[in-house]
């Protein structure tokens, strides 16, 4: 039996494909610190669970396709705190940010069309695109420049007649980069001049450090008819398992188009929506605490990485990821080595090779992504193990090279 | 700003597009009996809610992409009662049956490919196909024959080089038809001879009446490498709002392909999966009761319909729908008339025009779908109102016609 080309061509998750090595290490009694996945350990606000537990109907009925009115209201109020103002028919609730991105791409691209995406990017952007025959058209950003955007000319040179939009995450996964107001305005100009949509994945909106000011694409009046804001409760409220995302756009026509896709899948789970109403009512003091926690973790991990000769990375200012260029040839080989051949007092660390976050062949082979989602003590330990492992691995490769020379 | 052709071309839900007329009737103080939607009133088994309420982690984490092991186990056990035996890597949990169908179509069809579907069909089959550029290739079934399948020759004549599979629901939505063992075997033979997949949407498996024996496509050994079984808790356990569906196939290669799509959207909601573990443990006595309840409802509705001159429909033997051919020219006009211009003691009935369940232009214009999802008393009332309305409408059209003649 034959499978479709579009799905056959998809890569398996680069984040998950090395999991067997971790399982094997664990089976040998080794403790593995996971810096490879974006599953936070922060508590989910209790309001979510309380609302779910208070559900008292006998029948778990379909919800409306666009999302329950209470959740849309709750989201409208949340956006207001960022000076974004959406009518209720400008918001759709989705099955996670994932469905929000998939549906938006479907609604703006036909097969063969492409989307400009700064790389390294969230790897599933590629997957969503491939399964609906849309091409990711990458613009490369670099560790040395803290993964900030290249010049307007460089970006514009990638645009062709099949380009329908620009998709980017801000703060960035996997880079942790927060775009400046100038970068946001530049993207806005490019979009206007080339009649492109902007899909702004802002699921890490709250995770901005060092007092940096944050500009949402939803704050730029001139582009409001072409901006689609993607959100999710997953990282924001440490509620990854709720799978509640959303699409917001002042372009009511686009929302009406996407609503047809929402009607096709009938609805998003009723209980998860009821719980999420409460999440979006969480007081902003929650973010201050969480933010401070992540900021400390970032510093721990970054400072330790910087102690290793040859590691290149600017201190990221958002989300909870670091992409670092390592003094190694093949980061995947290093990641596997850490799990297979290294441990310190029976403990080791798992990180994620970054090659899967690029679509340009060969890029990112010497880079890794680290997620700082452990508590400070564990993270300190993990960072020190990683540092030691990396130094040893670099040493080992050098000695292998010189013995090959001999 | 431009939208994609694929989504622009999608029709709005034919089930939902007449809702404004119902809302208007209600605003005029008229009670509307809804026979237009498949939202059952049966109680969701309590185990679901109890399991959800007993969840006691502080963090609502991602679940694994293929589905939590407990739910897969629970589903395996359920299938065993139907003499179907799936390994754990032959099952994937999905966001409703909807995602199960969308992902399966993606994994077997590239843009321009087509899928054989008996019409009338579940309208979203069309929507799922359109948004991924797959064509529905309809084989027409008829009210006069109880919507049973046409001959092997007629079906085979529709197959071309771009045909990748046959998608059908059994028992059927919207027809309520249960395919015979002979029909299942015929489809199996056609699939083997033409190297096609069979996507068997069996979400109404339990709703079979009159002691009829039911054959699942999962019970035919010869085709097990090409059969994909779609299931869902929605109708089975009256848990439509849980959005828990599944894909099962002995073709492990296909499951591995679809798993990539599952990884892309990360996971299905954790709590809904935990609840659904209990649903699939519901004792079969539950189905006996529910089944008997639906059987009685079907009889009430069918008997009342049969009292109207010119109504054509065979008594359906499954699911909870009836498609009936009415003695009218335009069923949508009749449905709107019932909401706008008719009431009996301030009560009226909403049904669903069936044209949207066909992809062949012009078919189904004189047909409606009725869902018997109300309790017996309400249904009896609704059926009698519908009968009276229909008779009056037919009378009215006749008199309009003769006055036009005059």
UniProtKB/TrEMBL annotation, chains A, B:
It is an enzyme of class 2 (transferase). GO terms for biological process: amino acid metabolic process. Residues 32-359 form the Aminotransferase class I/classII large domain. PROSITE patterns: AA_TRANSFER_CLASS_1. GO terms for molecular function: pyridoxal phosphate binding; transaminase activity. The keyword Transferase applies. Its cofactor is pyridoxal 5'-phosphate. InterPro entries: Aminotransferase_I/II_large (IPR004839), AspAT/PAT-like (IPR050596), NHTrfase_class1_PyrdxlP-BS (IPR004838), PyrdxlP-dep_Trfase (IPR015424), PyrdxlP-dep_Trfase_major (IPR015421), PyrdxlP-dep_Trfase_small (IPR015422). The keyword Transferase applies. Keywords: Aminotransferase, Pyridoxal phosphate, Transferase. Its EC number is 2.6.1.-. Belongs to the class-I pyridoxal-phosphate-dependent aminotransferase family. PANTHER family: ASPARTATE AMINOTRANSFERASE. This is Aminotransferase.
